[in-house]
Amino acid sequence: MSTRLFIGLTLAALLTVSTVSAQNMVETAIAMDSLVRQIDPIELDAPVSRIDSIINFGKTYLGKPYRFQIADGSRLDCSGFVRHVYQEFGVDLPRTSASQANFVEKTTIDQLQQGDLMFFQGRSRKSDRVGHVALVTKVDGERIEMMHSTNSRGIIIETFNDSSYFTPRLLFVAKLPKEEVSRVLSKPDIPID
Question: Which CATH number characterizes residue 167's domain?
């Protein structure tokens, strides 16, 4: 229920049961309208998108060290982290970043969206092999925010465009396969505490 509708119904109920004068009703209506204008357009019951839920779940691991061990014994290196975050929402990604790279559908950087993946060279810039993966958390024009598990800083969010380490190592960007996206988006959200 929107804030405006809720306040309007509350006002109507108050006016019907009270015995205030017409002048008081007008003053109350003006005051309530002013209050509604201050609160609106905030929608208190706005749903969180499925991809926001996935990203919010990933954010619960921010600050954890590289290869952090979770309850099932898995370790959250870069691919383990991405796999774990998506697995919580029913997507079973392969275990390694190289295997994940073969699972996804490549796209262009201008088509990049929240929830997509970015694949990078590993430590050696001479190699074209995938050695690292990150989850896109935000795209704002050309600025890309990514969340990943790094061996030096643990699980972090950083702006790709500002990273002198990762920017030159980008190999490609990708989306989950369409059938996976359809399947995951059709499920009800899992609440994040």
Answer: 3.90.1720.10
Give me the amino acid identity at 119.
F
The reply to whether 190 falls in a domain is no
CA-wise closest residue to 131 among 178, 108, 99? 99
- Report the alpha-carbon angle 162-93-157, nearest 5: 20
Q: Are 55 and 62 in contact (CB under 8 A)?
A: no
Per-residue model confidence as pLDDT tens digits over 131-161? 999 999 999 999 999 999 999 999 999 999 9
What percent of the chain is predicted at pLDDT more than 90? 61
User: Is residue 70 located within the same domain as residue 163?
Assistant: yes
Contact present, 110 and 50 (Cβ < 8 Å): no
Distance CA 33, CA 3 (A): 11
Per-residue burial over 39-51, b if 16 or more Cβ lie within 10 Å, else e, is eeeeeeeeeeebb
Q: Is 0.70 surpassed by the pTM of this model? A: yes
Mean pLDDT of the chain: 80
Domain boundaries, position 33: 3-39
Same domain assignment for residues 139 and 177: yes
Cβ proximity of 125 and 115 under 8 Å? no
> Is the CB of residue 81 less than 8 Å from the CB of residue 148?
yes
